[in-house]
Amino acid sequence: MLLPSLLLPICLPCLLLQLQMSEAVERFSVVGPEQPLIAAIGEDAVLPCHLSPAVSAHDMEVRWFRSKFHAVVHLYRNGTDENDQQMPDFQGRTQFMKEDIGRGRVALRIRRIRLSDEGLYRCFFERGSTYDEAILELKTAGLGSAPHIRIAGHEEGGIRLVCDSTGWFPAPGLRWKAAGGQQVLPSSERVFLEDDGLFGTETALVVRESAHGKLSCCIRNPLTGEEKEAAVSIADLFFPSVSPWMVSLFIFLAALLLLGGLACWCLRRRQKVKENLITGMEIKIGLLSSEVEWRKASKYRESINLDPDTAYPGLIVSKDRKGVSPGDVSQEIPISEQRFDTEPCVLSCEGFVSGRHYWEVEVHEKSGKFWSLGVARESMQRAGGFRESPEKGIWALRSAKDQYVALTSPGTLLPVIQRLRHLGVYLDYEEGRLSFYNAESMEHLYTFSVSFNEKVLPYFYIGPGTEIVLSP
After folding, report:
1. What pLDDT, on the 0 to 100 scale, is given for residue 16?
2. In the chain, what is the greatest distance between 2 CA atoms, to the nearest angstrom?
3. Nearest 5 degrees, angle CA 387-CA 388-CA 391?
């Protein structure tokens, strides 16, 4: 009986050493590039990260996301890609590169980079209760069109040259150079923002002597340092040292062109006025039709109430069951199969299996612009993460930053300009119609056509900084 007691002092250090080695294997950190990554718009970008120490990540969850954990850019889990929760903007555009995953090295390829892809990305690794992440910054660069130089006429005893280009990001730098390489100061410069978010530029220069010989217009991307250049040679015959009969001919041709242009302008103006009248009538008819449709739907208005037993633990439902907003996720709330456990969602107490129903919702965006509302099947998934879509039994309208999307598959972008504050929802169960309206302007936003086959309930997703209030 004394032998185990004698061996204990010898075995105990070995056990402690083995435990420390096991903990060292479990611990890891995620390392990404320290400097921002630069990608050209329209090209592919590769975002790398790796584990330190270099342990295998085959059995780990590797998640790429931006500002929100559940707003997935790409997800690798259980040895495969799982992108049911992938953000619509990245669907079909990502590739998880795992050739060296055995040594903890992975990368994410994003195809056809867009201007909106610029910003911070998080590379997140998790195994069991151990996890870490690295933050990467992606900058986008647009290399615009080749500069175009044109002669804009005579000015102040010289020739006015104009150089322009489009499709740059960020705003480019520009300069004129003489034949010897010295810089020539322009008479004007203009950088402007285009409809697609890229920059265009225009610079002008008045050349008063032919000694320059050759002039170059250079446009440079300040992020990548890449340049595009165009050159032109100025001949003496372009300067205004011409004979009197040439001046007379020029005046005659200019007058002729002016008269022709004036006639064309009058015809175009007349045609434009006619087109504007037709367009205005069409808009008025459309708005009147939308208002009539909304008034018919609002006749079925009724009051609905939120069901606190379905609310995500991090949401606070008001005592009158008319309002819901984000709260403290640590609050003590009983867990049940009816409650959403990972997504900030809540359902109404009322459900519908027939008839026509209309209710209104007020959205208060205090510091966030991410929310969804619509209807969901009673049997929808409530445990774990899910993607809002008709396939998951959810028909809804989503606000994501400054865009509104009908959650079809794929999503349908809605042409809404102003922020929506007061919405109306109309359900015709038998006809299979779910319509959304701007209750302030009585404007129709979108209609789902659905064959309902079970009870549906009003559904709400409440993002950070957002409060939703049901109208009485």
Report:
1. 46
2. 129
3. 90
Tokens representing residue 151 in the block: 């002669």
Q: What is the pTM of this model?
A: 0.44
Contact 311, 324 (CB under 8 A): yes
Q: Residue 87 CA to chain centroid, in angstroms?
A: 9
* Residues making up the chain, counted from first to last: 472
pLDDT digits (tens, 9 = 90+) for 143-159: 999 999 988 888 777 88
Residue 61 CB burial class (10 angstroms; 0-12, 13-18, ≥19): middle
Our measurement of the distance from residue 100's CA atom to the centroid of its chain's CA atoms, rounded to an integer in Å, reads 31
Q: Find the helix or strand (DSSP H, E) in which 118 lies.
A: none
Which H or E run contains 426? strand 422-428
Retrieve residue 243's tokens: 């004979």
The single residue listed with the structure tokens 């302030």 is: 440
Q: If you search the block for the tokens 């205004």, which residue do you land on?
A: 240
Dihedrals φ, ψ of 101, to 5°? -65, -25
53, 35, 228, 186 alpha-carbon torsion, rounded to 10°: 180
- Three-state SS for 428? strand
* Beta-carbon count within 10 A of 389 CB: 16
Q: What is the mean pLDDT of residues 82-109?
A: 93
**Interior/surface letters 397-416, b for 16+ CB within 10 angstroms, e for the rest:** bbbbeeebbbbeeebeebeb
Helix (H) or strand (E) segment spanning residue 234: none
3-class secondary-structure state, position 332: coil
The DSSP call for residue 301 is: B
Q: Two tokens at 169? A: 């990001």
Letter for the amino acid at 261? G
For 291-377, where are the E strands, in sequence order?
Answer: 315-317, 323-326, 345-347, 356-365, 370-377
Question: For the residues 392-412, what does the mean pLDDT come to?
Answer: 93
DSSP state of 147: P
244-295: pLDDT as tens digits: 666 677 788 888 888 888 888 888 888 887 777 666 565 555 556 778 888 9
Is 370:464 a contact under the CB 8 Å cutoff?
A: yes
Closest by CA position to 214, among listed 174, 160, 177: 177
As given in the structure block, the two tokens for residue 124 are 């997140």
Instruction: Supply the pLDDT for residue 180.
Output: 78
pLDDT at residue 278 in the model? 63
Residue 13 CA: distances (Å) to CA of 6, 18, 19, 96, 177: 14, 9, 10, 43, 76
Cα separation of 12 and 18, whole Å?
Answer: 10
Residue type, 431: E
With a CB cutoff of 8 Å and minimum separation 6, the contacts of 289 are none
β-pairing, 214-220 vs 433-438, is unpaired
AA letter at 248 = S
